[in-house]
Amino acid sequence: MRPDPARAWLAALPLAALLTGHAHAQLLRCESPMGAVTYANGSCPPGTTLKSQIPPAPPLSEADRKRAESQAKAEANRARQLEQAERAEAQQREKARAAEAKKAQERERSCRKLALQLQQAEDTLSKAALNKRDAAEKARNGARARYELDCR
To answer: Which of 7, 48, 115, 152 is the most buried (most CB within 10 A)?
Structure first.
């Protein structure tokens, strides 16, 4: 199974979020009286109480930022390459289907022609005079053999 290019883009999103992220926003962990946990940026939603504050992540170093950028670019390039490969494969499959259809059409035309020749040979045999009957039978047998060989 091929990797999904969309997934590659989705995989790059966390890196993009880190690059553009809100490093200074503090995350709050809030709980309702029934124990449901909610996370919020500004203040806890109504009916919940603050249980803890999650400190912001430290800012990325320049090296980490550059590494994350290059990783995101590499993932995007890989996704583009996969999409191009899939398009090329689809085009090849379509060409193969078209070639098969053309081949089947040519075979059908050839078989109709051979069937007509066989019918004509049988008609000639049925009308042949006694002195020409052997030649007409040979011609019919040859037409039948070609038809059966190519069309059966």
So the answer is: 48
